[in-house]
């Protein structure tokens, strides 16, 4: 159980860091679209 929690926490932290990096970069995509796209990434990693 502890391992599962840690594995889920790791991808979440990485996604948060990537989100900040992307926000800093001048991307033409809106924040809403980026948020939805990144929201799906951690979910997929968590399930895998």
From TrEMBL:
It comes from the Eukaryota. This is Uncharacterized protein.
């Amino acid at each position: 159980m502890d391992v599962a929690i840690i594995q889920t926490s790791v991808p979440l932290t990485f996604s948060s860091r990537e989100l900040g990096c992307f926000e800093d970069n001048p991307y033409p995509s809106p924040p809403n679209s980026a948020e939805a796209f990144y929201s799906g990434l951690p979910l997929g990693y968590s399930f895998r």
